[in-house]
Amino acid sequence: MKSALHGKSASAVEIANVSSHGFWLMLGRRELFLSFDLFPWFRQASIGELCNVERPRPGHLWWPDLDIDLAEESIEDPERFPLVSHSPPNKRMQPARHKRTRSIARRSARG
Description:
Elements: E1 13-18, E2 22-27, E3 30-35, H1 47-51, E4 54-57, E5 60-63, E6 68-71, H2 72-76, H3 99-110
Antiparallel strand pairs: 1-2, 2-3, 4-5, 5-6
């Protein structure tokens, strides 16, 4: 008799839906919502990275592509688990700074 390979999930974990606000995770018959506001590490993840989730042991989830480990209780009750780490700023969402605009404004002020 062979035992299961290490690292393989014994319980089903599935991403049910993804929206601009977060995603729904199915753990057996339970459905949990992970808001991007409360779990910012997932905001820039691709669908493939989100879907590659494992449950190495009961109560623990792991996204190997993202190197994210979460306890299920931190999803169920995030207020008890304040953020310790912050995601880096998204440079694509920040407005571009144009030096040319500044020089035009200086010329206009000179008359």
